[in-house]
Amino acid sequence: MIQDETQGEVSVVTARPPRRPEVAPPLPRRAVPRWLRSRTAIAVAMCLPLLLLIGGLIAYPFFYSIYLSMLNKRETAFVGLANFRFLLRRDTFWLVVHNSFLFTLTAVFFKASLGFILALIIHTLPERGQRLWRGIALIPWVMPLALSTLGWWWIFEPTHSALNWILVQLGISPKPWLSEPGWARFATILVNIWYGTPFFLIMYLAGLKSISQELYESSAIDGANAWQRLRYITLPMLKNLIAITMLFSTIVTFANFDIVRVLTRGGPRYSTHLFGTYAFNVGIESGDVPLGAAVALFMFPILAISAFLILRGIQRSQA
Amino acid sequence: MIRSIRARRKLTLVLCYTALAAFMVFFLFPPFYMAITSFKTNQEIESLRGIPFLIQQGVTLKHYRDLFTKTDFLLYFRNTAIVAVLVTLIAMTISVLAAYSLSRLRFFGSVTLGTAIFLTYLVPETLLFIPLFKIVGKLGLLNSKWSLVLVLPTAIVPFCTWMLIGYFGSVPRELDEAALVDGANYLQMLLRVFLPVALPGLVAATMFAFTVSWASFLYPMAFIFSSQEQVLTVGTVTTLIKGDVYHWGGLMAGAVLACLPPVVLYVFLMDYYISGLTAGATKA
Amino acid sequence: MPKEIYGWDDASNNRWLISGKGSAIINPPSAWAVAKRDRPEVAAQCWHHDVPRGPQGRFRGSLPFTWGVWKFSKNKEAAKALLLHLSQKEQQWKLIEASQGYDTPQLPAFYDHPIWAEIEPPKGGQYNYMVRGDEKLVVCGWPAKPDIAANIYKRYLLPVMVGKVTSGGEPPKEAVRWAVNELEGYMRG
To answer: Is the pLDDT of residue B206 over 90?
Structure first.
């Protein structure tokens, strides 16, 4: 989607159905001028519902949110950037910034690495088993996150923690999973890794399948070992896929709400609050809508910058 | 030489299966433990003796029975089903039309629109829920499941459109152009010729739309506060907890049942779903 | 106290008590009710007593709920009639029985329900669960104005402040400075 409008025809490689060769060029346009005119109208009409949706329920609320964030608490007076200045002076807000970055960077790093390792593992296995393993591995991603987090909560529960039971059996002292800031952060990140790794797995696996086997065969003839094949064939071939997947995951992880809301509600001592959960706490639960809007708006420039950096990376590698 | 290669292959496989087993335990542990807990008696759940991963004091269906007879679970289930089905239909209609238009019919502004779809990712639902809360309030839809039908497509349509653009690209162009030249109008061509061929992609996108709307948590949390209109995710997480008494057996039973529809659907449509999800991203 | 209390939810003290790990909690009789249901052997050893008196008097935390009708309600008369109906003795007693005495009525006129004299153990030990003497009920956030008090409660200001010292090892002054910084946020107009 990001490139094909500018480059015209781009062949698409999918897991299935198999790649189809481009056969004939598109019809010459000059041959049917009337058709062309109505064609544009139809194209716009088909996009109209999408335009309405983006305009009415994404773009308008976004700008409305900027307006809201410039009102006072009672929404009676315009205060300019005072809410943003106010937030920048709050210890709690900076803690939320710190938490969000820690959560996102750690979780995305582990999701990407574990997903890659798992994709390589499954790719190595005999073909007939792969479908089953891939299918089972995606289950965490299909379960509604709020509900599976409820299950994790029960796993971490202070008095009856099943994880602590295992630790005690192994002779390790039980851990205060949800009551010490360090462990609570670990717990929220672990749940996110559990939920997100499968997505990376299937993306990478599809990518691995699209790499031509001939490349590996000819490199093997040249005497490349497994590490060199990974370093000089697999990784370069998957570079764009890795970048795109990481971009999606970064955005979704940064904007996560369900895990923290269900597992810790931001505690202990606000140490696990993310932008989303803190904005909810401030804006909805405490009735300070403008300040909540201001908290949430801080996400936008951060996401935009990370998207810009990743996309520029892709473009550079193609140039 | 041949032998050593074979031995190495065998060793690799053993290592792979070991690591794979560890991953599978990690992935399946939570659903397994949730299911086990939901069949335990309250006494066994509260007891600190015994192995947590086994049912040692008898299986009980009490938590499931209570869910249906003593709570609003069925009401939540119905609300969720209504919302998820409607949202899926709306989102798919919008996505299919836009994806066809953007992947086949280049027009003035189509590049801009493609960029706009991408930009919507930078405005996640955790940013939108506060202004939408005000907007939904102004429309008089607060505390109504129809608010979810209105806003949930925003979380689904961009990704679905993107997915479908990727998939539609793999359908040979001559197919629909030939139909058009033969005199079919666009609607006939889409419904009779194009969509049947693109079915795997459609199934994947539908599945995605359904899963996301079924799992939505933030919007119902923010917009809906009465039991009558509540959906499964929020209902299970909040109202099944009674005061300061947590029925973990009941909570787990609720969570297991609420997870079933998307998971069952996924088990049947797994291959379509995975191929559709990856279609867009694996473009070279 | 166990380290885990900083991760406790509303029911954790109940579970802690009946798991056999804990011995004393400050709680209405629900912990005992859960014990009776799930762990009779623990329930048999439960005992209730009043909050001790300190130099300033006897204090007890409370969480009041109120009923009201919105200004913008479409059906004010019917709503008022419903509230009046619910406030009658017969209905109030039903509510008291349904919560086994856990939820208490706001009007002292309903304190004569026998349930608090019946709740065990010891029999009659819960009689003073209703304030009948000089106990002072303390509401979280009091004496701040309701909207600020609600923020203090909803954003866990007090537990977090205490936790910063007792669990985070911060000096009390630093924790109070943090709380003042937070409060400024609640009080902004």
So the answer is: yes
